[in-house]
Design brief:
Serine Threonine Protein Phosphatase 5, Tetratricopeptide repeat, globular, mainly alpha
Length: 625
């Protein structure tokens, strides 16, 4: 644990980046323990693009962080709490917050990773047996220090990987311990208790991240290898799978979910083996010699630039396909040889294979490769290396010193790389610019660079970047929407409206496009476009940044009673949002109903443990009730 915190200590000065905006800054369900049931009733990304991610355990840890640390803001940040201005739903200037260090949140993420490493140490200790020696500790340290895991550790939204790993490693350690005791001897209560707790770990791993199903997969491998002919072994695994998966799907299917947008046609089945080979080569490189780590990795041959760049990328992918096939053959040879001289290494390789298979491109995912996807598989690969090295050292004792020296150098290299990689996640600006530089500037990164330029007041530069992104991917609606925003800022309303006419056909951006169109028409006519804002609010769903605009505009134009009705409508469907209750209180004050205002502020305070605005208002209103 000490070595983990040393390697990741620079993360304490980092801020929120990428999906942290949606999962931390804009998620209303993490702001009070009263809302803990909502963690199980809602999928992730309430105020952003809908997802299939159901991870209540991660959300519960974010609740703890919000209660313990709050969200640090740089001095001078304007908020409703400081200015008394009407609540617009933005509890802080997101751009400013993304530049402020958030040490508490990163401490929790590093702690989760350290606990996962401890769980791996426990698993390896049970797996190696009574004469384990220093092998389990070496394996846990190597895994904890590996820089490929920084996207799961330094990135707050990546914490789901660490949480799932804690339960996967702990659950498998219990399974291994039960097998070592003779798990299927009638009346062995400790072994039976271990298997029951392992089943609970499987459920918690699933509730942490969908990849938590890996525990059941490696448990099955364990039964196949350790007790292939014992029906009680199969029955214990089947019972655990039925109970944990049944409970998980009961919770998941009863949670409210907005269907996510279609990801497109996907990769044809005949092309997937090629992507599997490329991904294997890429992951092998990242595991052995991690360098230039970054998000937005891709092993496909989609266009990356001009003809010369596309040709270079195509040649690289062809070489990568051949390398991946060679690596697959080498792994198969290793597994076959290990079955004879190091059976535990063969078992570890099988566990690595079944945990990697779901993210290998056999199934269509939202990317072809991602560094954090080998968070758990890499642990089993390290275990396989350790078991193989121990077997070789026993046969050739003189090799032990050489292996130890090589391992020490590799660990030092990993620690240095992990320390250096923390700067990549420093803040949103650093993250975007570094990713664009390292990943080659894909369309999504062009859009993010354009948004940074817009924040700096460089509208023309931002517009050029948005157009470049659209040229790379002509059907990218988010590029058109940002072009419309930049054109609006430049007061080029005709261009903005032309882009919005296309964007409004997209279910993903229709509501936001209506809001921007309303602003343009109001700028032209001087009159608020209440019909447009009302239509946007009606289709906004959980998107508070859109839904709030209608009642705010109504209240600002002397129609507080109508604004009051609309907020009540929103609260009927989504009563968990503190900002809605706080806005209701402000509107109730505007129409002179102090009793309703006090109740609304009280509800807001209950739903946000750090809502000082509502508590102050409640203190002002209560004496008159």
């Amino acid at each position: 644990m000490f070595t983990t915190f040393v390697a990741y200590w620079p993360a304490m000065r980092n801020s929120f980046v990428w999906d942290d905006t949606a999962l931390v800054l804009r998620d209303p369900t993490i702001r009070s323990w009263r809302l803990a049931p909502e963690a199980f009733r809602e999928f992730l990304f309430l105020d952003a693009t809908a997802s299939n991610f159901y991870r209540p355990v991660q959300r519960l840890t974010f609740m703890a962080d919000y209660a313990l640390w709050g969200i640090a803001r740089p001095e001078g940040t304007r908020t409703a709490a400081k200015t008394g201005a009407p609540d617009t739903g933005d509890s802080a200037d997101l751009t400013a917050v993304q530049s402020a260090a958030q040490p508490g949140w990163h401490f929790s993420s590093v702690l989760a990773h350290a606990l996962a490493a401890l769980a791996l140490w426990w698993l390896l200790g049970v797996w190696f047996g009574a004469n384990a020696g220093w092998w389990p500790l070496a394996g846990a340290i190597a895994w904890a220090l590996h820089p490929v895991h920084t996207s799961a550790v330094t990135y707050v939204s990546g914490r789901a990987d660490s949480l799932a790993a804690i339960f996967i490693f702990s659950g498998l350690a219990l399974v291994a311990k039960a097998h070592a005791r003779g798990a299927f001897v009638p009346g062995d209560r400790p072994a039976a208790r271990a298997l029951i707790i392992a089943a609970l770990c499987a459920l918690l791993a699933l509730l942490s991240k969908e990849s938590g199903v890996a525990l059941l997969a490696v448990w099955l491998v364990w039964v196949l290898v350790r007790a292939p002919r014992d029906p009680r072994g199969w029955l214990s695994w089947l019972a655990a799978a039925v109970i944990s998966c049944g409970a998980y799907f009961a919770l998941r299917t009863t949670a409210a979910q907005t269907p996510p947008p279609s990801s497109g046609e996907g990769t044809p089945w005949k092309a997937r083996p090629i992507l599997v080979a490329r991904a294997l080569a890429e992951y092998a490189t990242l595991f052995i010699a991690p360098h230039s780590l970054h998000m937005e990795r891709d092993v496909s041959t989609r266009p990356v630039g001009d003809d010369a760049a596309n040709l270079r990328n195509g040649r690289l992918r062809e070489a990568q396909t051949l390398a991946g096939l060679c690596i697959a053959a080498a792994l198969a040879w290793w597994w076959r040889r290990a079955r004879k001289f190091a059976p535990d290494a063969a078992l570890a390789l099988a566990c690595a294979a079944v945990t990697w298979l779901p993210v290998s491109n056999v199934f269509a995912l939202n990317a072809t490769i991602a560094e954090h996807w080998i968070y758990v598989p890499s642990a089993f690969l390290i275990a396989a290396i350790l078991f193989t090295a121990r077997a070789l050292a026993q046969e050739h004792p003189k090799m032990l010193a050489a292996l130890g020296a090589f391992a020490a150098l590799w660990l030092a290299f990993l620690a240095v790389q992990t320390w250096r990689q923390q700067g990549y996640w420093r803040d949103q600006r650093t993250f975007v610019t570094e990713t664009a530089a390292r990943a080659g500037g894909g369309a999504r990164m062009m859009i993010n660079l354009g948004q940074l330029a817009m924040q700096d007041g460089k509208t023309a530069e931002g517009l050029a970047l948005f157009r470049e992104a659209l040229a790379k991917e002509p059907r990218l609606d988010i590029a058109r929407f940002n072009i419309a925003i930049a054109s609006y800022v430049k007061k080029d309303f005709d261009t903005a409206l032309a882009e919005l006419a296309v964007v409004e056909k997209s279910p993903l951006f229709a509501a936001d496009a209506m809001v921007l169109e309303a602003r343009i028409l109001q700028a032209r006519t001087g009159k608020p476009q209440l019909n447009l804002l009302g239509n946007a609010a009606s289709i906004a769903g959980r998107n508070w940044s859109v839904a709030r605009m209608y009642p705010l505009t109504l209240a600002a134009n002397g129609r507080a009673d109508k604004a009051y009705e609309d907020i009540l409508r929103q609260l009927t469907g989504h009563p968990y949002r503190a900002e809605s209750w706080r806005l209701l209180g402000q509107i109730a004050e505007q129409i002179g109903d102090r009793k309703i205002a006090a109740r609304a502020y009280g509800e807001a305070a209950d739903r946000d443990v750090r809502d000082d605005v509502s508590r102050a208002k409640l203190g002002e209103l209560r004496p008159s009730n």
